[in-house]
Structures are given as C-alpha cells and as structure tokens.
Design a protein that fits this description.
This protein has 225 residues and is mainly α. It folds into 2 domains: 19-80, Winged helix-like DNA-binding domain superfamily/Winged helix DNA-binding domain (Arc Repressor Mutant, subunit A, Orthogonal Bundle); 85-224, Four Helix Bundle (Hemerythrin (Met), subunit A), CATH 1.20.120.530. It is built from 10 helices and 3 strands, in the order H-E-H-H-E-E-H-H-H-H-H-H-H. It has helices at 19-31, 43-50, 54-66, 85-105, 111-130, 133-149, 154-171, 177-182, 185-196, 200-224; strands at 40-41, 70-73, 77-80.
C-alpha cells in the first residue's frame, strides 16, 4: 500500500494555516492522480508538507471523509478510498442529473463561461497530441466541471468537485490509461461545440451516451479487478 511521506511533494511550498487549504490541496492531488486508492495519509508527514499543525490536517481529513474520498480505520488511520461498483453507479447517476441540467442551463450562461468551456477542450487536445495520458484524464474532468459551472451554482459546483475526485479514484482501475483516456477527446469537443452553438438537445444526447459508455467501461474494469 502506498504511503504519503514528507518528501513526496517536497517542491510544494507551505500553504499556510487553514483546513480548507489542506483539503483543497489533497482534493487536487486526487484529481491529478497523485494520490491513488489505498494510499495512506500520514498526518505528521502532511503537516510538515503544508506547514500546518496535525490537528489542521486531521480536520481536513474529516472533511475529505465527508466528501467520500478517504476512509478512517481504527489503528490504521486515514487512507484514500477504494471505490466499489455501487459507488461508481451512484457517481454516474449524479453525473447524469448534474451535467444534463447544466446543458439545459447553458442558454443563460455568460459568454465568459462558454469561453472557459472551449478552453478546456483546447487544453485537452494539446495533452492528447503530447501523449500525456494521465494529464489528459485530469483535463477531461476539468471539462466536465466547466460544463457544470454553466449552471452557476456554487453549491452544485462544490458537490461536483467531490464527484470528479471520486471519478479519478474509479479511473485508477483502468490498466490501459492511454486507450481509456484518448477516446474522450473528440467526444468532449463534440459536446462543447453543441453547447456553445445552442444545440442543447444534441449536447444532451451526446452526453448521455458518453456517460453510459464511461460507466460501463469503469464497472467492467472494477469487476475484472
């Protein structure tokens, strides 16, 4: 089982005191696949990394536990959560509800949010050309977050931040990351183009098929594991 040590991210400067700062930094590590399922989270090492107290780290861990991203076992401490097929099905059900609603809400979205959606697709294309598959997976998650942001609800966006971090944990079971990640680039772009052009029925249909295909592949991989 992997273990986070003080030297794991020695190039990271202290973020200063604050539970939310530690929570957000670790959430970002999960989305970037720096932290993978089963990784032990050692409060002393993390306190040294972030320049905060152990109590601050523990509070951040409890917040991440509430987000469904870590677990706490007696005599073992905190570790990054390992998802089940039931977890994955629930995540995708929530995705369908949130992302299709965001497509519907895109008619009222300001141009700058649509521009940000388009920029995530451009960023993904660059990573695809460079063959940076893990980062491409993160970029795809950022695209779907940008889609939810079109709904202009801070509460829903914060909830979706937890979902995309859980998704990254689910994606960890995919043994061929290149094959899994590269298939979504054109499909993300097609969804973005439909949303930006106001073809919301098309975008909704593309998104529904996309999410069904992704869910099936992840659950099949979990069962093979």
């Amino acid at each position: 089982m992997a273990r986070v040590t003080a030297s794991a991210r020695s190039n990271v400067s202290p973020i200063g005191p604050g539970v939310e700062g530690v929570e957000r930094a670790l959430l970002a590590d999960i989305v970037a696949a720096t932290l993978v399922p089963g990784t032990r989270l050692v409060d002393g090492a993390l306190a040294e990394r972030f320049g905060v107290s152990r109590n601050t780290v523990r509070e951040a861990m409890r917040a991440l536990e509430g987000r469904g991203l870590v677990t706490n076992k007696r005599n073992a401490g905190y570790s990054v959560r390992v998802l089940t097929t039931g977890d994955v099905r629930d995540i995708y059900q929530a995705r369908v509800l949130l992302e299709t609603a965001a497509v519907d809400a895109s008619a009222q979205a300001p141009d700058e949010l649509l521009d940000e959606l388009a920029e995530t697709v451009v960023a993904a294309a660059r990573l695809h050309r460079a063959g940076r598959w893990r980062e491409l997976g993160t970029a795809s998650l950022h695209f779907h977050r940008a889609l939810v942001v079109l709904g202009r609800s801070e509460r829903l966006t914060d909830f979706f931040d937890s979902l995309i971090a859980q998704l990254r944990l689910a994606f960890a079971v995919m043994t061929d990351e290149e094959t899994f990640q590269r298939q979504w680039v054109d499909r993300d772009r097609a969804i973005a183009e439909a949303v930006i052009a106001g073809r919301r029925d098309d975008a909704r249909a593309l998104l529904q098929t996309y999410l069904n295909d992704s869910e099936t592949q992840v659950i099949d991989a979990l069962r093979r594991r």
